[in-house]
Each structure stands twice: as C-alpha cells, then as structure tokens.
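Example record for the data management plan.
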Amino acid sequence: MKVFLADQRRRWLTAYAPLFVWTVLTIGLGSGAASMNETSRFIRPLLEWLFPAADADTLYLYHAAIRKLAHVFQYGVLCLLAVNAFRSVKRSYLIALSYISAIAVIDELQQSLDPTRTATPVDVVLDIVGGLLALGFLHLIRRFRRGGEA
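Corresponding structural encoding:
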C-alpha cells in the first residue's frame, strides 16, 4: 500500500510541479523586473552585436518583436505543461487552453497595476495563440506516433 501511495504521489508531483513552477515564473515575468527597460540591459547589447549597422529604431523594433515572440513561446510551454498535468481528464486540451487564458488575463491585470508595464489585450491574444500553436504541434506529434497522416 505504501508503494502505491508513493507512486501515486510521485506521478501527481511530476505532472503538477512543472506546471506550478512555470505558472509562477510566468506571473513573475509580468512584474516590473521583466519590463522592456529591464530586458534591454541584455537584449540590446546582443542586438547591437548581431546588427551593428542597425539604427536605434530598428533595434527597438527587434527588441519588441523578441518580447512578443517570448509571449508565444512562454504560453506554448505553459499549455503543454497544462495538457500533461490534466492528461487524465477528458478534454485536457480545452482545459489547458482555458488555464492559460486565465493566466494570461491575470498577468495582464497584474501589469495594468504596475506603472513600469503596459497591459494590452494584444498580449492576451498572443498568449492564447502560443497555446494554440503548442496544441496543434502536440496534436500533429500524436497523430504521427499513431501512424496517421497530418
């Protein structure tokens, strides 16, 4: 009986702990510590090194694009972790998408209260797109593993 409970606890922990950690990280990145001014401390020098002939406006545009793509990646990972955590539940894809949508809204609400951040519905849409892309990718992988066609 003890072995069964330990195994059950381990399975629960391996399913939900990564989701919890990534969710906390996601909410934390919504703080002023991850504002454009803060991330420019390391992204801007990298961009200047990669594109030495680029003017300041171009570098700003690249920096903004990297930040927006980070939304897609970050919430794509969050969605995959949510699918994994909720895998034993029917409609785990829908639950995972609902979960990341709620986190995206909470993140933007938090940013609206921080004067160093700008909250925008566009970011919520980007976050959901990231989740949808991850779900689509996961669906294709599962179809190929079953021997089906895409």
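Summary line stored alongside the record: The mean pLDDT is 89.
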